[in-house]
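Morning!

This is the sequence you dropped in the shared folder:
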Amino acid sequence: MLGSDKTAFDAYVQNYRATAVSKFREAFEVMRAEEKKVYQHKSYFARIDSEPYAAGDLSSDPDNVDQRWVL
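The structure's back. Tokens below.
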């Protein structure tokens, strides 16, 4: 790829990886914000961020599905 210069190759790979990680983190934060915006208090990220979860959303019946999804 970069010839026989191993130092240049290693530097290229290190830079590529750092750039890829940075772009992934940026995209992940955008996805996370969108997920929280769409699902609000039901969001996975809202839960792990210790945001309040509505008590009314909890059900003791595991077969009780959200009725708005029933056709």
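Headline: DSSP finds two helices and no strands in the chain.

More detail when I'm at my desk.
O.
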